[in-house]
Each structure stands twice: as structure tokens, then as C-alpha cells.
């Protein structure tokens, strides 16, 4: 997707404040200040924002780091494809998905879910303005560290569980909780992103397996009614991945990967040694095949994780 932007004719060097001519420089690149020699980023103008870099790409568009000069803050801009880049039908589907995400975020008040700043549908392409979370993803942490230390993984899971609670209070199920959708803010807290698959509690999946195969609850695959226990299963998959460095089920194809979630996961203690017994119990309970055999509610998950974090670390804990 080629983002339609306006080229800036000049930028101000942050080092020496010299006005640098960028009329011949490609947007989203760098040029050297002729006065002090400092490398200067060359942003692009998109609506009222200054776009500085691409953060990621999805099926419907791309996410960019931008600067909002009106509010004087960095933001994440989730931008759909332009309307003439795909069919009218696909454009309508993309806009509907973006509208679902924006409305879901607007309904949620949570310190553990990314904040919505704005939603613009009249602009082509349409976009969502979101809180910028600069600390990277849990997925990157797992990849770089080949897993996450037990106490750190439990703290992350506790943040996510609180986010699931707040999503559930809005009457919603996230449906796509996974390490790649968990980002760190400037203070190191974890926030959930990407509510494009969010749906009402009590929705029937109708066999439409929506989500990410490596973290998808069995009831989504079987086409059953979903509720908060669906997100609890995905949290269990995520916590398992953090602790072991591997997904619960590794499979080369999405279809067969989905089928493996219809089998009971092995007890965590059989997969990795040295974990606290309570950690293993919590993960095993989250990963039960039948929703009725999992935690019945997210509040109990939060309490168990909070108690375990307190047991393993005596630093002051956040109120539940």
C-alpha cells in the first residue's frame, strides 16, 4: 500500500535549527543537515499529521508513527487502503472492520487497552488515531529472549487479564489476544491492541474461525457460543508461549494448526521444568478444551495471578 502523502519542502534540524531543504528528498527517509552534519528525519504530511515511519502492516492497511502538531504528541495512525486501491466491496468491508474496532475502543475504559484518540472516515484513506506505545511487543520480547522469565511473564499476563476484564465489562470479547497484539507503553505496562475482531459476548462463532491460529480457542473453531473464557484460553496460550518460548501447538499450516487446538494441551510441568506449581496450575486451567472446565470468570484469573506475583515478588502490588 502506497500511502498518499504531501512532501515537505523543508525541515528544521533539531541540532542546530538550520532550515534544511528537503524538496528533492524522498519522504520517510533521512538527509544530512548541511550546517552541522546531523542526520535529519524527513517526515511526510498526512492530513494534519507528520508521518515519520511505518510501524507495521496488516491485511487492510498499515500502521504509521505520526506526530500530531495540534495536540503536540506522537500517535499511531492505523490507515486503511485508499478506496481506489481495491474494489468497492472490499473497501466497504475494510471500513466496516475499522468501524468495529473504533467503536469497541470507544466503549472501553482501561489502563490496559490502547486508547482511541480519533476516527476519520471522510478522509481517503480512512484512519484511526491511536495512542502510541513505544516499548515494543511481547512477541519481540519472546523472540529476543527466547522466552520470558517466569515472574515477568506473570506480570504481563496480569496486565492482560485486567485488560480482558475491562473489555468484558464493555460486553465484548477480544478474540485475537496474542503476543503480537500486546505492546509496552513508556512505563513498561502492557496494553492490548487490535480490536478489529472484537465481538459481543454471547456471539456464536458459526464455524468462522476468526483470530490467530496459534492462540485460538477451540469453541471458535467448533462454531460455538463465545464469551470471556474464549479470551482466557488465548491468554493461556500467550502465557505458555512466554514461559516456554514455543507456541502450545506448532504446525506449518494454519488449517492443521487449528485442528491441533481441538486436542488437550499437555500439562505445562511436563513441557518445562522448574516453574512454580501454581504457575502450572493456572496455565493448565486456562488451556482446558471445554470452556466449562476453564476459569469461570476473569476476576478469579486476576486474583490468582496477583496472589502468585505477590508470592514470587514482595514489591508493592497494584490493587485488583
Set out the fold topology:
Layout: E1 6-7, E2 10-12, E3 19-21, E4 29-32, E5 39-42, E6 44-46, E7 49-57, E8 61-68, E9 73-80, H1 88-107, E10 116-120, E11 127-131, H2 138-145, H3 150-169, E12 172-173, E13 182-184, E14 190-192, E15 199-200, H4 218-222, H5 228-244, H6 254-260, H7 268-271, H8 277-286, H9 298-312
Antiparallel strand pairs: 1-6, 2-3, 4-5, 6-7, 7-8, 8-9, 9-11, 10-11, 12-15, 13-14
Low-confidence stretches are: none
Structural class: alpha+beta
Q: Please provide the count of β strands.
A: 15
End-to-end Cα distance, whole Å, is: 43 Å
Shape: globular
Largest sheet: 7 strands, antiparallel
Q: Which superfamily, in CATH terms, is the homologous superfamily of the largest domain?
A: Transferase(Phosphotransferase) domain 1
State the CATH class of the largest domain.
Mainly Alpha
Biggest sheet strand order reads 1-6-7-8-9-11-10
Query: What is the gyration radius calculated from CA atoms?
Result: 22 Å
Mean pLDDT: 90
Percentage of residues assigned to helices: 25-40%
In N-to-C order, the SSE pattern is EEEEEEEEEHEEHHEEEEHHHHHH
Number of domains: 3
The CATH topology of the largest domain comes to Transferase(Phosphotransferase), domain 1
Tally the helices.
9
Amino acid at each position: 500500500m502506497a500511502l498518499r502523502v504531501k512532501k515537505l519542502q523543508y525541515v528544521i534540524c533539531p541540532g542546530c535549527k538550520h532550515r534544511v531543504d528537503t524538496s528533492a528528498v524522498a519522504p520517510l527517509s533521512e538527509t544530512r543537515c548541511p550546517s552541522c552534519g546531523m542526520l535529519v528525519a524527513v517526515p511526510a504530511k498526512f492530513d494534519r499529521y507528520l508521518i515519520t515511519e511505518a510501524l507495521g502492516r496488516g491485511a487492510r492497511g498499515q500502521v504509521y508513527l505520526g506526530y500530531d502538531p495540534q495536540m503536540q504528541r506522537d500517535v499511531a495512525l492505523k490507515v486503511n487502503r485508499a478506496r481506489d486501491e481495491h474494489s468497492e466491496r472490499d473497501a466497504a468491508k475494510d471500513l466496516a472492520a475499522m468501524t468495529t474496532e473504533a467503536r469497541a475502543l470507544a466503549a472501553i475504559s482501561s489502563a490496559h487497552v490502547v486508547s482511541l484518540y480519533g476516527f476519520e472516515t471522510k478522509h481517503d484513506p480512512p484512519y484511526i488515531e491511536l495512542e502510541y506505545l513505544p516499548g515494543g511487543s511481547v512477541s519481540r520480547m519472546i523472540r529476543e529472549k527466547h522466552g520470558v522469565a517466569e515472574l515477568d511473564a506473570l506480570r504481563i499476563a496480569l496486565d492482560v487479564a485486567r485488560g480482558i476484564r475491562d473489555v468484558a465489562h464493555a460486553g465484548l470479547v477480544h478474540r485475537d489476544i496474542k503476543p503480537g497484539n500486546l505492546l509496552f507503553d513508556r512505563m513498561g505496562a502492557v496494553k492490548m491492541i487490535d480490536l478489529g475482531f472484537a465481538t459481543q459476548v454471547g456471539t456464536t462463532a458459526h464455524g468462522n474461525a476468526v483470530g490467530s491460529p496459534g492462540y485460538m480457542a477451540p469453541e471458535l473453531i467448533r462454531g460455538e457460543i463465545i464469551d470471556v473464557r474464549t479470551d482466557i484460553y488465548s491468554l493461556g496460550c500467550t502465557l505458555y508461549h512466554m514461559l516456554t518460548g514455543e507456541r502450545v501447538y506448532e504446525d506449518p499450516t494454519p488449517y492443521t494448526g487449528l485442528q491441533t487446538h481441538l486436542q488437550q494441551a499437555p500439562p505445562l510441568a511436563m513441557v518445562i521444568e522448574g516453574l512454580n506449581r501454581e504457575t502450572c496450575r493456572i496455565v493448565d486451567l486456562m488451556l482446558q478444551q471445554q470452556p466449562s472446565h476453564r476459569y469461570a470468570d476473569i476476576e478469579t484469573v486476576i486474583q490468582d495471578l496477583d496472589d502468585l506475583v505477590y508470592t514470587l515478588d514482595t514489591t508493592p502490588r497494584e490493587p485488583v
